[in-house]
TrEMBL record:
It is found in: Secreted. InterPro entries: CRR_secretory_protein, GNK2, GNK2_sf. Its main location: secreted. Residues 1-28 form the signal peptide. This is Gnk2-homologous domain-containing protein. Gene3D superfamilies: Gnk2 domain, C-X8-C-X2-C motif (3.30.430.20). Residues 28-130 form the Gnk2-homologous domain. One of its GO terms (cellular component) is extracellular region. Keywords: Repeat, Secreted, Signal.
Length: 222
């Protein structure tokens, strides 16, 4: 005859069973979210580049917690980033990235532009876009005879959002020191904004030979 287990021992046994199950099933977590461009590719070279990129990201970022790289050449080049939360252990980082790599392949199959978020890590891939020179320029007619020309540029190491913020601050300060002048320049450490009533950026408009001088101001900020 088998005697029933005492309640404390029964609880301990059940807890050990649950923990043993968790060692195989509870390590993986569902992603917080993912984003795909929904454009699958059938190009074998591109698919190889995607797989190589993800494999390298997981391998290199698992120990350092952060890694960026590219895979492929020319128009087929793909950029990738992997990053773990700064307070997680190397083992947790590695496990999270492995889960992310597996899941992103299932949720965004054969897609260049894809990203996935977990509590412990983040994984991203995207097509390498040709970098511009951080410059924007344009013109607008104020009257049939008067055209306003403007140019803005950021240092190339500045993130897009920081560039936009720098330019917004510069333009927002125009009323304070430009005082409706015909030309004005605001120079910051990370951006430069200028407007004139004559063309000054290249290529110059050969049909307009005017050169306005004398009624502009330069304002420099740190």
């Amino acid at each position: 005859m088998t005697l029933p287990l005492p309640l404390p021992l029964l609880y301990t046994t059940l807890l050990l069973i649950i923990l043993s199950l968790c060692t195989t099933n509870c390590n993986g977590q569902d992603p917080l979210g993912n984003l795909c461009n929904d454009q699958q590719t059938n190009n074998k070279t591109t698919i190889q580049n995607i797989n190589h990129l993800i494999t390298e990201l997981v391998s290199k970022a698992s120990s350092s917690g952060y890694f960026t790289t590219t895979s492929g050449q020319g128009q087929d080049k793909i950029y990738g980033l992997a990053q773990c939360r700064g307070d997680v252990s190397t083992d947790d980082c590695s496990g999270c990235l492995r889960d992310a790599a597996k899941e992103i392949g299932q949720r965004c199959p054969n897609q260049v532009d894809a990203r996935i978020w977990y509590d412990y890590c983040f994984l991203r891939s995207e097509a390498v876009k040709e970098k511009n020179k951080g410059i924007g320029k344009g013109e607008t007619k104020l009257t049939p005879l008067v055209t306003l020309y403007a140019l803005a540029q950021c240092t190339r190491d500045l993130a897009v959002v920081d560039c936009a913020q720098c330019i917004a601050i510069a333009v927002g300060n125009f009323p304070n020191f430009c005082n409706n002048r015909k030309g004005c320049r605001a120079i910051y450490s990370n951006c430069y904004v200028r407007y004139e009533l004559y063309p000054f950026f290249f290529p110059l408009d050969s049909s307009n030979n005017s050169s306005s001088v004398g009624n502009w101001v330069v304002q420099v900020y740190p």
